[in-house]
Design goal:
about 150 residues; mainly alpha; coiled coil
């Protein structure tokens, strides 16, 4: 009866399982009717009970195996979803790091540009101070005032 067992990749739906069970019960009933016609009621009852018990136990084993297959399928699906979540999280982290690197590079560039402007402005201010000091010396008659 183990030929009805299925792997997680190929398990049978409960509807199909119940249909197979009913078919096997009908076959057993057919054997029972034949035995009754051929011989006595007692032999037929024993045959039916034996066959029915075997079918029911095989059905129970099959149900357990089918439940196990469904559980394994759900477990694999959950593992797949978890891997997808981890991959998405890692991808977003990498994108965030890349964006942070870009922002950091832009900030460094702006910082360097500001330094250049500060140096240029300091140069202009120093040049203006010198001119201002020279023109004051000329007005004062030679005395130098430092600012």
């Amino acid at each position: 009866m183990r030929q009805f067992l299925h792997t997680p990749e190929n398990f049978v739906s409960w509807r199909e399982l119940d249909c197979k069970h009913r078919q096997q019960q009908a076959v057993a009933k057919g054997y029972f009717d034949k035995a009754r016609k051929m011989g006595g009621k007692l032999a037929a009852d024993q045959l039916y009970a034996t066959i029915s018990t075997r079918i029911d136990s095989a059905y129970e084993v099959f149900k357990r195996e089918n439940q196990r297959a469904e559980y394994l399928k759900e477990l694999r699906e959950e593992q797949r979803r978890e891997k997808e979540r981890q991959l998405h999280t890692e991808t977003m982290r990498m994108k965030s790091m890349r964006a942070n690197d870009i922002l950091l590079n832009q900030m460094e560039w702006y910082s360097n540009e500001l330094r250049k402007q500060i140096v240029r402005l300091e140069t202009e201010v120093n040049g203006l101070r010198k001119r201002t000091n020279v023109s004051r010396e000329e007005q004062d008659g030679g005395s130098c005032i430092l600012l």
